[in-house]
Design brief:
Layout lengths: L2 H19 L9 E2 L9 E8 L15 H11 L5 E4 L42 H9 L3 E4 L23 H19 L5 E2 L14 H8 L2 E3 L3 E2 L10 H18 L8 E5 L10 H14 L2 E3 L2 H7 L12 H9 L19 H7 L3 H11 L2 H16 L3 H4 L5 H13 L2
Parallel strand pairs: 1-6, 2-3, 2-8, 2-9, 3-4, 5-6, 7-8
Helix pairs in contact: 2-7, 4-5, 6-7, 9-14
The chain binds zinc ion.
């Protein structure tokens, strides 16, 4: 083993240790990056950011980018998730940025499809395209009405304007949500923050905003590559989008099962649209390896979590608790079945949690609580920790909690 592998192994072990030893509260909103590989079929999803747009595909064709994407998807029987914006037309005054840099679409704000051409993109400006997307069986997710950052990101986006409070973020998201549901009859359940900036200056996070809307956080695990700066040679651009997928599939034909591929419904940083040429090649590859391309919402219906699938003994219990509106998963969409269940976590799954927590808050000190509650929770849940004093893995605790709920 060389030094690099040793260091990398040590780094991974440290990361695992840190993850085990950092307290992370369970969350109703989960970041969906990829899911546990479905067993019967090979399923993959594609998300298309920043559209829809009638902007002409450059340099390949004069026709609109979204329309061309829809044609290719239809040819391959693929269904996608269009991560749409409302309109960036209000994001002025602003100055044009430098093509090829992160400010390519504007210095202070983003402008899609490009600076000064805001009316060519977005749900508010292109209703006919939205109807075409929905008619063809694709789904929509919420990428923010104005595509404004939820908070500062000084390293790459230092010159950018951003929202200040969670109320501003929620107002922007609701504006697009309402437009899509009232005008087009589609109720969005997924959201992706512009540039994945999560930290809102008032101390909230994107997760809090999505909880207010009843959304899940839409992420991605495989980069389709259509957003990068062009090298100047269109054929090279397309190759750079197709080769990584081809290599990954040659190495492991199942590797994309349960993954979400990031795509761009618009120009890249150099105002070209390689997606239009690369997408048919990517879809042909996926077809050759027997993949079905389906919307993220459908992928989640088949396999919702990252680390456990339907064959896990606690899978049904996790779904049951989640269906009751209880937080069961962690924000990274894992259940972590073998991790010891914390008392506070188990309490949140039990029907007596309100009585217990008010009783504990009023009557007990923290130390007493720690001594007392494990027993109570354990006896409610049918687990005797006193006898064994060993920690209960989360998957066993979830089974016990469901049993306890069902027995009243
Ligand atoms: Zn975006």
């Amino acid at each position: 083993m060389d030094l690099y592998s040793t260091l990398r192994g040590a780094y991974r072990a440290w990361k695992r240790w840190k993850q085990r030893n950092t307290y992370v509260p369970m969350s109703r909103v989960r970041r969906i990056e990829r899911v546990y590989p479905p067993a019967e079929r090979k399923l993959v999803s594609m998300t298309f950011d920043d559209g829809p747009t009638v902007a002409p595909a450059r340099p390949y064709s004069g026709r609109g980018i979204t329309e061309l994407i829809l044609e290719v998807m239809s040819h391959y029987g693929a269904k996608g998730t269009f991560d749409v914006i409302g309109s960036t037309a209000e994001n002025y005054p602003d100055e044009a940025g430098k093509p090829g840099s992160f400010t390519w679409s504007g210095k202070k704000y983003d402008h899609y499809p490009e600076f000064g051409q805001d009316q060519l993109a977005g749900v508010a400006n292109q209703p006919d395209l939205v109807r075409k997307i929905l008619m063809a069986g694709h789904e929509l997710s919420n990428h923010g009405y104005r595509h404004m950052a939820f908070g500062p990101q000084p390293i790459i986006y230092g010159s950018r304007a951003y929202f200040r409070t969670i109320e501003e973020v929620i107002t922007d998201l609701k504006r697009l949500h309402t437009l899509v549901s009232e005008e087009f009859g589609f109720s969005m359940t997924l959201g992706r923050p512009p540039h994945y900036i999560d930290r809102i200056p008032d101390g909230h996070f994107s997760y809090d905003a999505y909880e207010a809307l009843g959304y899940q956080y839409l992420a991605a695990s495989f980069d389709g590559g259509g957003w990068r700066a062009a090298t100047g040679d269109p054929a090279d651009e397309v190759e750079k989008m197709v080769t990584p997928m081809q290599k990954a599939l040659e190495e492991d034909p199942d590797c994309l099962n349960g993954q979400i591929i990031f795509q761009k419904d618009g120009y890249n940083m150099s105002l070209q649209a390689p997606i239009v040429e690369a997408l048919p090649k990517q879809l042909a590859l996926l077809k050759r390896y027997d993949y079905e391309v389906i919307p993220v919402g459908q992928l989640l219906a088949v396999s919702p979590y990252r680390d456990i699938g339907p064959s896990h003994p606690a899978y049904a219990a996790v779904r049951h608790l989640e269906a009751k509106g209880l937080p069961v998963l962690y924000p990274d969409n894992t259940f972590r079945p073998e991790q010891p269940c914390l008392v506070g976590e188990m309490l949140q799954w039990l029907p007596y949690k309100d009585t217990l927590s008010s009783f504990c808050r009023d009557q007990l000190t923290v130390g007493m609580l720690l001594r007392m509650v494990p027993e109570k929770a354990a006896s409610f849940a049918g687990i005797t920790t006193r006898e064994t004093s060993r920690p209960v893995p989360r998957w066993q605790a979830a089974l016990a909690a469901v049993e306890s709920i069902e027995n009243g």
